[in-house]
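Recall that a protein's primary structure is simply its ordered list of amino acids. Everything else, from secondary elements to tertiary packing, is in principle encoded there. The following example makes that idea concrete.
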Amino acid sequence: MSKRRNPEPGFPPFLHLDHPRPVTRRQFLAQGLITGSAIVIAPSIAGFFRSSEARADVLACDAGFTPTGRIPFIVFDLAGGANTAGSNVMVGKQGGQLDPLTQDGYGLLGIPPAMTPVSNPANADPELGLVFHADSAILRGIRARSSATTRAKVNGAVFCAKSDNDTGNNPHNPMYGIHKAGADGQLVTLIGTQASDSGGNSAAPASMIDPTVRPTKINQPSDATGLVDTGKLIQILPNPADASAVMMAAQNISDQKVALMNESTLVSQLIQCAFRDTTHLVETFGDPNALNPLADPIITGSPTSLFTAAELQTNEFRGTASVMKLVVNGFAGAGTIELGGYDYHDGTRATGEGRDFNAGQSIGAVLEYAARLNTPIAIYVLSDGSLSANGQIDNSTGGRGKFGWAGDNSSTAATFMLVFDPDGRPPLGPAGNQVGWFRATGNVETAATRISDEVDLLAQAIVLNYLALHNQTGTFNTVLPGQGLGSGSQLDPLIAFANLPRFT
């Protein structure tokens, strides 16, 4: 298998004197040297018979196709150790996002004195509910792909928590827990742009992993359309309604034969469900364009589309479009989008600003796509570790007069979650926009909460907040038996969101 060494125009790979020569897939990915291949073996109709057998415990023929009523969920996994705290999402002391750090504390997070919210309150921007730095590259990217109307219906929270640098071993990704909380799709439960147990770079907590719903790899349009193989029938009868009619006739004949068989109720139901599920697939997805982001005018192909055809030639945008098409439409319950090249401490600020802007555009596209479909969406942004600044101003056009990034620093790490609700800005829970806090010196206060120094507990907290959006925090112990966050009022400092009004 060949590997592309310079995958993205404008985002060349880079090397660090303080890092060893990359040898693992994750190290190559973090430094922008590879993006990974995309191979998915599409299931056949026979495969859907097996799928029905796997769902035998449900004993409901439409179990795989009934919407769950859960909010679609997408993880952005920024591989390499990206900046979140300060220069992108504002962080403060115990009083919240704008409880000021010292000048040196802001400096560690890449913010020069003139750009701190202390020197000028306008340097903090609350447009998304969650307060960003006014010149955040991620925020600029979000604005480039979303409307002001969409952004007015977003809220979010920053989670102040350490994670290890430059490793995929952080048990960051909560996808399996999100599924345990009820997220599911019409075609597939979990998807991700990488062929890993989490679908991305960072690992999933071992206590959450369910191998029966391991993410299907989706990082380009052909992967999405390849999820359904309806066989030669749809080629003979291109009209899905005609093909469905044939399948219904076959189903009725099968039902009559099954009625004469001396089989158990379970076996009979399995046979009947296999035909009914396959008929549904032919009827709904006989036209592969139903799953194809390239055939969706909201995504591309019209003057108001989110991406141009040229932009969808890049791996980041192609993967984003493919995952959001499936997740936001309910074809998949949740998905991970891994973006590479976020180990960007090369002494400049320009490199990191470019990478963060690119991530922001992908996030903004997902928000806007959900808005145009009138569908809520929850987005979680994580990275393996973080970095600190060198105190040297980068006055290049790309550097924007900010401090350059000097090296890895797990103590400045944070993650954040954004939620869009077409009915209006989501309400906040007891913790508000900031869970945990930073010390005045610019480091995570590790004694603030249970999640401040435990990445697996951080992932549990994201599942807790997902349940809170659905007014289901009372089921937390059932969803994650043995969870380590406590109970009752102990959970309040970790709950950033209240339930959306539709789940009251």
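The first helix runs from residue 25 to 30. Residues 93 and 438 are 5 Å apart (CA to CA).
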